[in-house]
Amino acid sequence: MRRLLSLLLLSLTLPTCAPVAQAPQNVAPALPYQRAAFGSGWTDPDGDCLDTRAELLVALSTVPVTLAPPDCSVRHGRWFAPYTGQVVTEAGDLDIDHIVPLRYAWSHGAASWSAQKRARFARDPVNLLPVSASANRSKGARGPLDWLPPDPGFRCLACCRFRSPGMFGLPLRQTVGLVESLIQMAGLDWPVPDFSTLCRRQAQLAVQIPYRASGQPLNLLIDSTGIKFRGDGEWLARKHGASRRRQWRKVHLAMDAGTGDVRAVEFTSSRQGDSPLLPELLAQIPPDEPIDTVTADGAYDTRRCHGAIIERGADAIIPIPRNGRAWKADCPAAVARNEILRATRHLGRALWKTWARYHVRSRVEARMNCLKRFGERIMSRDPDRQTAETHIRIAIMNTFSALGRAEIEAVA
Question: Tell me, which fold does domain 218-403 have in CATH?
């Protein structure tokens, strides 16, 4: 149980995936609260005649909605009002509540935001919830320490929803206090380790990354990316120049193209090359699990990589450099690589990539983007803690991927 709780606490220190809706920190505003500073209410940015309120009601209704003439507002539908536990069918009986109230945000740092950021925050669907008008007026601009929903069954979830826009990225001290409050509200008698114990445990925390078995031979997609842990941000460095040396780490991933889950990960220094890590990534796949193909970019066109792929009984889908030459056919890896070279010269690079389905590799690049959505930098400084933090991010990614993802089919 301690290991699970440590994993939960450390995951709360990661930056959020929705930076627009991050809750601001507690700082005294220089100016009194002004509602107009968050924009002029609901807008219609996509020009479809439905403003933000109407689009939210349409998306959350459990039945098709009825629109009022001239089809620019919602009249009827079926919604669940979570604060009171009621089912509402009249759109006029609903208010759109800001989970983090605008006045609360203003007094906790939003006064220093730009006008564009405040406007995005006010209309961000992550921070909006349709509730009964009476409950919304009862809540006002109060946070969960001063107000909780009348429905007891939603109170714990309401606290999580209130903190979910901004609880990620919390320092360890604030994270411990938050989790203590949530555990107490849930009626559980769980001890919460203090921040110093949590920091020590992070270095020895062995994170088990969950994944789904596809039941078929794996089609692995290999790629690597750099992630910063020290130095100025990209915008600040471009605008004013780097004020101090920036330091990076590299994350090497092997993703199952069938399920979208990350199956293997290596965390190294920025000086480590890409190709030497491919055999180690393949070694993390159970020996009794068959691998059909391994797709990677031209940086992995080495004898060691081709040899490791051949040893697992897989086919390599690795483009040969334009100036690449045939290898001496003294081993199975060289023979397989020369076959790729012959096919590329015969078909042309573009046609070979289409025939070999090399472009599927873009999915692992998208996965890298998801990894960086947790934050452009890692918070830890010690290599062991950095490894644990990276593994936690990937475990969260795989968990959310298992909940469901879009199925893409070619229509033309």
Answer: Nucleotidyltransferase; domain 5 (3.30.420)
